[in-house]
Amino acid sequence: MKKLLIGLLFTTGFAFAQDPVELDLEEAVAYALEYKAEAEKARLDIKNADARIAEVRANALPNVSASANTTYNPLLQENVLPGEIFGIPGQDIAVAFGKEWTSNANAQLTQTLFNQQVFTGLKAAKSTKEFYQLNAQLTNEEIIERVANAYYQVYQAQQMLENLQSNLELTEQTVDIVKGLFENGLAKKIDFDRSKVALNNLIANRQQVINSVALSENALKFMIGMPIAQEISLPEQTFKPEILPETNIEEVERTELQLLNKQLELLNWQKKASLAEFYPSAALVANYGWLGQGDVFPVGNGEDKGVYWSDLAAVGVNISIPIFNGGATKSRVKQNQIEIEKAREDLKDTKLAMELAHANAVAQLENSLLTIRTQEENVALAREVLEDTQNNYGLGLASLNDMLDVERDLAAAMNNLTNARLEYKLAEVQLLRSQGQLEMLTNKTL
Q1: Could you please report the per-residue DSSP string of 109-176?
Q2: What start and end residues bound the annotated signal peptide (predicted)?
Q3: Domain 26-60+118-279+325-443 class?
Q4: Tens digits of residue pLDDT in 317-335
């Protein structure tokens, strides 16, 4: 029901563009798969494959055509015949054949009896559709990957804004403390001014981070095909790492590999189609028509007007036997074989690249997890140091520099933790892709 309401909201245009829509990762992916141009084009490619299959199948079905024409011959060609034919020996006579007007209507049926190229194309038709189905699946996986990355980028930007807001509140507290000490003659004016400068700098930085959040949200909306004017919000979620179950990559049949294998299969069919040019072909041809001749326009006139109509029919078999075409077919077969060998090399290289991506993702996950744990300790330690420094400053045991330094240290530790978590989530996406399990992203929270 929630997805239905979101879909209705998005499809009604900009009427409710000012009302933010809460969008989790699963909904963002679902929306992208429904509305993103790449996904729609991939679905259209599958429909186009059906049309291509029908086109190939048509070559094996009967082909019926009809034609009609009318010809006026103002000058009839004359042929010279021996006079003996007419009982006039020794004299040639010019005789004009035909009539001034000629009309004919003809219908022709052609049925392929044997054509190896057609039969090979029919066998390859199923593989062609499977190729486009796999391509659509790969397109969806790429969309899921990009949407997940963009979604995590938005979350990171929002977390950075929260970190800055927290630091801003701490600096405001510092300003209030310094102001109170200054008003009571326990602090210098320069300390109060420096604390105000630090606060103003944070206020300026907050606007930059707000702009960064807006840019990352716009990037996400573009990635899923959503109107840029539509406001979105991310639900409250954890951004903590999860230990993913390890999968043997050799047992995973990645879509990329399936697609390359299917492409290799199509190239083999293409080679067989080229080899089929060496085979003879046979087709049944049947014709039936009407012929009208006369000295007046034949259509609508009969013998009483001097127009004579007759029907005609013919049935035959056309056989074509290739003998020699200069080696063109042999050259095409050789080209097809080279393409097959190149596809095999692409397959090997892709397998190697996937192994590399998997190994890098695992290493990045491990490194990011260690970094996260370190930064979590740093954040906790920085908070303790800040509290102690604030107390010491109030007692005159710490300087303003010490106070501002520990505030910056806490802000840096919090940002480093956020960045480490983002790196982990991005590596998680890569690991899931290398394991062929990107759909897991749509079934869990951040």
Answers
A1: EEEEEE-HHHHHHHHHHHHHHHHHHHHHHHHHHHHHHHHHHHHHHHHHHHHHHHHHHHHHHHHHHHHH
A2: 1-17
A3: mainly alpha
A4: 999 999 988 899 899 999 9
